[in-house]
Amino acid sequence: YVVGVCVRTTGALLTITDGASSGNRSVGSISGGGALYIFQGQAVQNGGEISGNTAVNFGGAIEVRMGSFQMNGGTISGNSAGNWGGAIYNDQGTITITNGTLTGNSSTLGGGAIATGGSSKNTINRSVLYSNNTNQNGGAILNTGTLTLTSVTLSDNTANNGGGLQNQGTGTLSNVTVYGNTAVTNGGGLNSSSGTLNVVNSSLAGNSAAGGPDCAGTIVSQGYNLIQDSSGCTVSGSTTGNIGGEPLLAALALNGGSTLNHAIDTDSPALDAGEKANSAEPERRGDASHIEGS
Questions:
Q1: pLDDT in tens, 160-180
Q2: In angstroms, rounded to a whole number, what is the distance separating the alpha carbons of residues 96 and 238?
Q3: What gap in Å lies between CA 15 and CA 69, rounded to an integer?
Q4: DSSP code of 139?
Q5: 3-state SS assignment for residue 283
Q6: Contact between 28 and 2 (Cβ < 8 Å)
Q7: What separation, in Å, do the N-terminal and C-terminal C-alpha atoms of the chain show?
Q8: Residue 167 has what pLDDT?
Q9: Among 206, 245, 202, which Cα is nearest to 224's?
């Protein structure tokens, strides 16, 4: 069923440091994980690249089932899944991604890069997810679990709904840039069709969709957001410090950090418009993942 590595049982630990895993394929009808299947065990990726893997079912690169996966730097790219999670599918497990790059991944049924199950916990910090796609919902991420994004960029992802993010669980976005994503139907940037999605110090701009270019559904604002076009979504909560307009962002590039992001122009209305208590770490102070600027 699994043609990569299988990490099974509580206490099992696999650590991959600056390695590469590519060209593996899972043909399991129940499980997935083209390169890595984690069942109750733990796996850690320290740098390196997991690329070009496929799964007939879940998790083109990785499936986490009641286990944990930790990514510290590195890249997960060009993987594909016939079901959910082009790069990663998390079912009742825990994933933590820091300084990671997920790009060029694809899925058929949802979560071009990441798909999360209802009991899963998912934390992503100082990372970029770009140019991922799915035929259904969540070009970068389909969330039905608990999701926390901090200083993350979602860019140039595509889906039917939720070009950047499709939320059906509990999500919190802090200092996040959602820019240049596309949905065929609803929510070019974000589509929060159910559950709760909290957004603070973040930029939703330059996205496109037939309904709700930058956001669709309901988002709970915690203040200091730039939302270029909120016509397709209901914005509840605190709107203190919220602004509109074109953020004037540059193309993805390395701007002093370890992952690509969108630099913010000195003429942007978002510059110095954020709440300093929630501003991003100094590593990413050149980009728009918070709307304060440097």
A1: 999 999 999 999 999 999 999
A2: 28
A3: 10
A4: S
A5: helix
A6: yes
A7: 49
A8: 98
A9: 202
Token pair for residue 104?
């060029």
Q: Which residues contact 181 (CB under 8 A, 6 or more apart)?
A: 139, 140, 154, 155, 156, 157, 158, 163, 164, 188, 189, 207, 208
Cβ neighbourhood burial of 274 (10 Å; 0-12, 13-18, 19+): buried
Q: What is the DSSP annotation of 209-242? A: -SB-SSEEEEEEEES--EES--TTEEEEEE-TT-
Q: How far apart are CA 55 and CA 79, in angstroms?
A: 8
Global model pTM greater than 0.85: yes
Supply the DSSP string of 231-288, one letter for each residue: TTEEEEEE-TT-B-S---EEEEE-SSSSS-EEEEPTT-TTTT-S-GGGPPPGGGTTBS
- The 10s digit of each residue's pLDDT in 18-65 is 999 999 999 988 889 999 999 999 999 999 999 999 999 999 999 999
